[in-house]
Design goal:
The chain has 378 residues and is α/β, with parallel strands linked by helices. The chain has helices at 15-18, 28-32, 39-54, 62-89, 96-99, 103-106, 111-139, 145-154, 166-177, 196-206, 239-248, 259-266, 272-283, 305-311, 353-363, and strands at residues 23-26, 58-59, 211-214, 223-226, 233-237, 254-257, 287-296, 319-325, 340-347, 367-377. Helix 4 runs antiparallel to helix 7.
């Protein structure tokens, strides 16, 4: 057997075989998920990070720090938005007297009126408590307890990498064009950080040891996945990554695992509450919804979703679902000349809005996109 094909037959060691010796690399999303953990989970993971750091086995790439600092305020805003949604969901019910004018005749003791007042007071107190939580979240922008706990680990990062190095960027571009993992297209539409996974992977390849890469990112850049749409689940790390790491490290193993699986192996006997909370945030994937406001240039002559899909070329953008909607309802009638309509796109990877507009307007002569609204859902 010649040496250049040995990687195709390589059988990597299992997680339990390297859990006590391998270097452990944490991905950005694994650290950012701290903003979603319960306090008991936070302290369990923090204890694991401290133990790894003390043994000089915790490795955080400079790219991870860069992404963490950029996304930290967004995580705080997500929490604030959730509180806003809770507050807005609290309805003010109609007064009993307006619903039932004869209430006074059947409620001589004002029992129901007093209950109504108590309910109203309780509702206002709940709103007030939520606003207090919101104010505490706002304080995190400048006084962040999560960031403070992670600071000792960030201070050990090697920041010598030059993210603007032309040779490195050219290497990344070449891999992206060839769709070599982890640059298979998942981040291709981003205006910024489209090579982030590449920088993290290059760091991993530089470690002269077995490696455990802890991530909550289930993109197809890293994993083979089964299922469809939101039901897609990771099955196994991509073989190309296993083989490249084996080749570069001269026979070493890389295990790419979820935070939940890592913690269960690293700290046997974890409380059920901790395992469930970690698993919950591993399986919640982020989906991006883009609403494109369009104006028809010609009567595109479609009356069902399949005709529309066949007429639209989105290139390498992986779309989970496409839906045309408007005042007439989805595909109820033909779209007339200059009639405004909307396209709703749901995808499992973030796409820069300007890139998406350009992609539509350059590839399709059927209509033009004038505006894109974005939202994120789990």
């Amino acid at each position: 057997m010649t040496k250049n094909i040995e990687k195709f037959f390589f059988k990597p060691r299992k997680l339990d075989e390297i859990i006590n010796t391998a270097n452990v690399v944490f991905d950005t999303n694994a650290l950012l998920s701290a903003y979603q953990w319960k306090d008991v989970v936070f302290h369990e993971v923090l204890e694991a990070l401290n133990k790894l750091s003390d043994a000089n086995r915790l490795k955080i790439p400079a790219q991870v720090f860069k992404e963490f600092i950029h996304q930290r305020p967004l995580k705080i805003m997500e929490a604030i938005n959730q509180i806003d949604l809770l507050i807005s969901s609290i309805q003010n019910p109609k007064k009993l007297g307006s619903v039932l004018p004869l209430l006074g005749l059947i409620d001589n003791n004002n029992t129901y009126v007093e209950s109504e007042k108590a309910y109203s007071a309780s509702r206002e107190k709940y709103k007030g408590d939520l606003n207090q939580i919101k104010n505490k979240l706002k304080e995190l922008f400048n006084d962040d307890i999560v960031l403070d706990y992670l600071k000792p680990f960030f201070e050990k990062i090697d920041f010598s990498i030059d993210f603007e190095d032309k040779g490195l960027l050219q290497h990344a571009e070449n891999r992206a064009k060839a769709k070599i993992p982890p640059l298979t297209g998942g981040d291709g539409g981003k205006a910024e950080n489209k090579y982030g996974d590449f920088f993290i992977w290059q760091y991993i390849l530089s470690l002269n040891s077995d490696v455990i890469f802890v991530t909550t990112d289930a993109k197809e850049d890293w994993f083979y996945k089964s299922g469809a749409g939101k039901e897609k689940k990771p099955v196994s790390p991509r073989r190309e990554l296993i083989e490249e790491f084996y080749e570069v490290s001269k026979g070493r193993t890389i295990c790419i695992v979820s935070l939940s699986d890592f913690m269960k192996e690293f700290k046997p006997g974890l409380a059920k509450e901790v395992v469930e909370n970690l698993s919950e945030h591993q399986t919640l994937e982020m989906f991006f919804v883009y609403t494109l406001s369009c104006k028809s240039l010609i009567n595109i002559g479609v009356n069902n979703i399949f005709d529309f899909i066949n007429k639209v070329d989105l290139g390498d953008i992986r779309i989970i679902d496409r839906m045309l909607s408007g005042e007439k309802g989805p595909f109820k009638d033909f779209i007339g000349v200059d009639e405004e309509f909307k396209i709703v796109i749901e995808t499992d990877n973030e796409i820069d809005s300007s890139f998406l507009i350009r992609k539509f307007n350059e590839s399709n002569t059927l209509f033009y996109v004038s505006y894109i609204g974005e939202s994120r859902v789990c």
